[in-house]
């Protein structure tokens, strides 16, 4: 159990990453693939947060006397995740707007049917 | 004293000013990217002379490097930013008349953002910052591929976006693992501590990062998006994607492997990937009937050759690789720019539709022919000294495996010659003899093409102009200890 306790965030985040990859690789519907990209992004963000997380830690900005530095959560990964979330939102928004255009042209979102270009 | 930060800040600011400008005075918008890129070119050239002596390290916010985001304006960074500004400027002049349809202000904004991202990637010294600039580059290129809103453009943009997004997620996981191991994101600081942990725990982030960057760099198994995206984008964007975006990807891969990881044992595998990329690209290019797809596959082949030369990791090899990179950027930009107006006049991308173009558009076809000959490696064009340097570097290693690879690379060049000569033959020697009175491309297109032609010939005849800069860039890439000492002081 102690293994689970100490690694639960990593297990969860890599679980989400693999679910996301599975959805992207297996699903035929573009909307589902975009959902998969969202899950993948979430997994990566959770992983970055858990790299710097300390159980029952506090944010370093609340530095009142009596808190040692080892009870403070590393703020750098959180800053990274903020940036990564913004980037993820941009990618998802662009993907959804392309999906609208794709549907207007082809009348379907099934990626197996949209195959006009090949090697 | 010019600050390298201006190379990123000025185009970024102007890019976001473009929509505001468009509200008041729409016709002026298209002159903003050339203005920003002239500025970047001048600043890069001013810096280039200075950084050849010692690199400039700019710490943002006044903190010392391991604790701040820093820019490293060494010979490599400034050389790349000068190339990006030069080719970007020429292509933006070309786009003044070429881009007429659609929401043009969005085109110009995204174009400038793409080049800002590329400049940021080559100048940054912080690995997360590299990721952010890479995403700026990627997202604007996804949107630009779909700019024409045609069936093919949208389809390939979707493919490109899905593959690119998975690649950047892998890159981010790799960065997260590195941060977990070392507690720092500064590339020099990671490089300094890389030997303090076991090789196997460094191997996983390295593979993730190289795979993530390899999607954008179009290294062999990861390049399925490239021919679609490069062939269905507007020609000016194809020129930038082929000439700059994938080169920046290669730069990032090489910087990560050489400087951060110092992974000597990985290089043979990289050379093998380079040769595979080269052969796959050239063989697919040979069987294409669509001229832009042919050029796109030829870019894959050239990327393979560049990667192979860089993976030699000798002074000559890296110089040759960077030289080939410069020559590919110039030649391929020229080819796409010339092909853009040829396709526009012919109304089709099929090679057979271009019959007799040599008489209808003599200047454009001359530019295309020079680009093709340069890419194949004929003297007196720039492709000859660059390929010659690679051959010499490989023979100097005296290793049987690299010489075997070189034989395969030369085979690739023969195939390349075959398909380019076929196109040149169609342009000049096929079709009916009478002149149909078709128009030449406009001056704004001919001017950038002939500036590139002039550069190709001048550097081809007198390669000494660039080899000094290239060899000091090569030594920056190879001497990771110097890099660490320069940044951390």
Give your account of this protein's structure.
The complex is a heterodimer of chains A (119) and B (489). Chain A has 119 residues and is mainly alpha-helical. Chain A has three helices and no strands. Chain A has helices at 2-26, 30-51, 75-106. Chain B has one domain (6-488). Chain B has a two-stranded antiparallel ribbon with strand order 1-2. Chain B is globular, with a radius of gyration of 21 Å. The model of chain B has no long low-confidence stretch (mean pLDDT 91). Chains A and B meet through helix 1, helix 2 and helix 3 of A and helix 5, helix 6 and helix 9 of B.
Q: Which short descriptors sum up this protein?
A:
heterodimer, A: 119 residues, mainly alpha, Helix Hairpins, B: 489 residues, two-stranded antiparallel sheet, 20 helices
Average pLDDT over all residues of chain B = 91
Q: How much strand content do the residues of chain A show?
A: under 5%
Query: Biggest sheet of chain B, strands in spatial order?
Result: 1-2
Regions with little confidence, pLDDT below 50 for 5+ residues of chain A: none
- What's the overall geometry of chain B? globular
Q: Helix amount of chain A, in percent?
A: 55-70%
What is the N-to-C order of secondary-structure elements of chain A (H for helix, E for strand)? HHH
Q: What is the average of the pLDDT values of chain A? A: 87
Order of helices and strands of chain B: HHEEHHHHHHHHHHHHHHHHHH
What class do helices, strands and sheet pairing of chain A give? mainly alpha
**Main structural class of chain B:** mainly alpha
What does the secondary structure layout of this molecule look like, with pairings?
The complex is a heterodimer of chains A (119) and B (489).
Chain A (H helix, E strand, L loop, with lengths): L1 H25 L3 H22 L23 H32 L13
Helix pairs in contact in A: 1-2, 2-3
Chain B lengths: L5 H19 L7 H20 L4 E4 L10 E4 L1 H24 L5 H20 L3 H19 L5 H32 L4 H7 L5 H19 L8 H7 L2 H27 L5 H20 L4 H21 L3 H32 L10 H4 L1 H15 L6 H15 L2 H30 L13 H19 L2 H15 L1 H9 L1
